[in-house]
Amino acid sequence: MAQLLALYHQPADPAAFDRYYFGTHVPIAKKVPGLKSYVVNNGPLNVIAGSPAPYLIAELSFDTMADLQSALASAEGQAAAGDLSNFAQAGVTLMVFETKSV
């Protein structure tokens, strides 16, 4: 399985971020081809060690890294990426990786 992990930094206005993220961005991102699941954290994050906690973490799953890369290159993927500047002014860290059970 391949994952895209989005770590959104603390916004200046959390309520405005949430309204836009869930009302506009999520519907755009859910149109990305090959998306198998879209999960976000529920509630405040606690950091055990390291940097300050992100405000929100989103985990998007795809069957393979090729599917993830194809999704990002699609018109829908480009629309989702282009939408980030509309609400993630505090910044976002994007990571992609493959997973395996151990």
Notes on the protein architecture:
Helix content is 33%, strand content 25%. With 102 residues, it is α+β, with helices and mostly antiparallel strands. The protein has one domain (2-98): Alpha-Beta Plaits, CATH 3.30.70.100. It has a four-stranded antiparallel sheet. The longest helix is centred in the first third of the chain and has 16 residues, at 14-29.
Contiguous low-pLDDT stretches (5 residues minimum) are none
CATH architecture: 2-Layer Sandwich
C-alpha geometry: globular
Helical run tally: 3
End-to-end gap? 13 Å
Total domain modules: 1
Structural class comes to alpha+beta
Adjacency order of strands in the biggest sheet: 2-3-1-4
CATH topology type: Alpha-Beta Plaits
Could you tell me the mean pLDDT? 95
What is the number of beta strands?
Answer: 4
Order of helices and strands: EHEEHHE
Main β sheet profile:
4 strands, antiparallel
Radius of gyration: 14 Å
CATH classification class: Alpha Beta
